[in-house]
Amino acid sequence: MTTMTIDRPAAGTATRRAGHREPGFLTAPFASRTWREQGYLALVLLLAPFAFTYAVFAVSLTAGIAVTVVGLVVSGGVVLGGRGWGGAYRGLARDLLDVDVQAPAPYVRPRGFWRTVGSLIGDATGWRALLFMVVTFPLSVLSFVVSVTFLATGLGALTYGIWYRFLPEQLGTDGELHRGAQFGPGYFVDTPPRIALAALAGLVLLFCWPWITRAFTLLFRVLTAGLLSPTRASLRVAELERSRTGTVDDADARLRSIERDLHDGTQARLVAVAMQLGEAREHLADGGDVTQAAELVETAHTSTKEALTELRELARGIHPPALDSGLTVALETLAARSPLPVTVDVDAGVEAHGRLAPAVESIAYFSVAELVTNAAKHARAAGVYVLVESVGGMVRIRVRDDGRGGARVVPPDGSGLRSGLAGLAERVRSVDGTFDLSSPVGGPTVVTVTLPSATSPSEPA
Question: Which end of the chain has less neighbouring CB within 10 Å, N or C?
């Protein structure tokens, strides 16, 4: 079964890596995850002094020497270096905490010296990484100390009965010599009940240690996802750039297709018309056969009508005239012209508050047209069902055919070529829509397109 959903990722989220299992309470002290989390706390403690120093240096340098041009450049470079620290912390989280945090979009140097300096100093990703380094400095010290204290104390108390005999003797308040840990002026842990109680306390601490460690690493996970992942605005900008590129490529491909159709079809037919009319004129000018000249004119007339038909088809591919009367009429017209039976069901609520925005109408129409064409050409379908409905402030279009299935979205390979479904998905994403394809081998193929239901005022008749 082939299922693909194209949507935008959420900002500030972290995803678990595949194969992750939560250890139970009794197995937690021996689980590899617990020891990797402890290793993470140790490594971030080693990095914390250097990271904190770097962050403080970046702030002080920016405040101290930013009055000079050279200072601006150097400060901007230091801020940009925060991205490297962020990448290192994301790598630690990925390798030791099994958390994948999406990397922010790479820095792109703008044109112009002052714009470059401004983008360096104002790099939000770098500053957020510096903030992470400042915030995690006290957290790394506290988390490592508390975690290691629980671990070391638990292990020490659990094995106390073995090594307490090697402690030096001490004189107690009872006048006798004791070996063992001393609590208060006269309480020594050197009797079997007290040793057993210490072992029990150590066991409790040892089993609490993984969850204390996990609580601290959870804070690091939250901070990593919140400060070292791309912001919603940056994701939106990157998405718009990708969508714009795809839309421009799609528009360019359409223009080239129209150019080929005009050059190879309509233009060639009009050239033939001109030649036929010129030949007829020569026949008449030379006193030739009027019947033969009339046949040439008739042929030219037929060719002209065929050229007009081709031009109408090309114009319909750019903007279907049926869309002037609304999406419902356009889809019904499309169904009537389809080579296979198409059932169209449009919910009355879709256009209840006025016409949809022109861009949404156009994308909805061409989406259905592309999918119906695919069903007829490739899926060997006997029929297509189209449902258009309003759901939660969105327009949902569901196209189902009973063909052989196996359809898939082929992403661009860098050559500039893309499949029809890939271009359709790019169109849908250009208006913040979603594209979902379910096409198991053997069928049926169901494509669900969700578009924003922005409306435009209805035009007077």
Answer: C
Cα–Cα separations (whole angstroms), residue 403 to 209, 388, 406, 420, 422: 58, 20, 9, 17, 20
Check if the beta carbon of residue 446 is closer than 8 Å to that of residue 400: yes
Of the chain, the percentage scoring pLDDT greater than 70 comes to 74
Task: Give pLDDT, residue 8.
Answer: 45
Cβ atoms of residues 455 and 353 within 8 Å: yes
**Residues in Cβ contact with 251 at an 8 Å cutoff, skipping those fewer than 6 apart:** none
Residue position matching structure tokens 């678990």 = 16
- pLDDT tens figures, 239-272: 655 655 555 555 555 666 666 656 556 666 677 7
Question: What are the distances in angstroms from CA 356 to CA 37, 327, 351, 360?
Answer: 53, 8, 7, 6
- pLDDT for res 264: 59
Distance from chain centroid for Cα 292: 68
Contact 426, 250 (CB under 8 A): yes
Would you state the pLDDT for residue 145?
Answer: 94
pLDDT of 167 above 60: yes
| Residues 3/59, Cβ–Cβ less than 8 Å | no
Distance CA 334, CA 325 (A): 13
SS3 content of the chain, % helix, strand, coil (to 5): 60, 15, 25
CA–CA dist 55, 49 (Å, integer): 10
What's the Cα-to-Cα distance from 111 to each of 2, 73, 197, 205, 421, rounded to whole Å?
44, 15, 71, 59, 36
Distance CA 428, CA 363 (A): 7
383 vs 65, higher pLDDT: 383
DSSP 38-82: HHHHHHHHHHHHHHHHHHHHHHHHHHHHTTSHHHHHHHHHHHHHH
**pLDDT digit string (tens) for 379-410?**
788 888 988 888 877 888 899 888 888 877 76
Angle between helical axes of 124-158 and 69-96 (0-180°, round to 10): 40
Beta bridge pairs of residue 397 = 388, 449
pLDDT band at 90 (very low <50, low <70, confident <90, very high): very high
User: Could you tell me where the DSSP H helices lie in 159-266?
Assistant: 160-163, 192-227, 232-261
What angle do the packed helices 267-285 and 290-318 form, to 10 degrees? Answer: 160
Closest CA relative to residue 223, chosen from 134, 120, 95: 134
DSSP 84: H
In this predicted structure, what is the pLDDT of residue 67? 64
102 in Cβ contact with 229 (< 8 Å):
yes
For residue 395, give every residue at least 6 positions away whose Cβ sits within 8 Å of its Cβ, in sequence order, or none. 350, 356, 360, 364, 388, 389, 450, 451, 452, 453
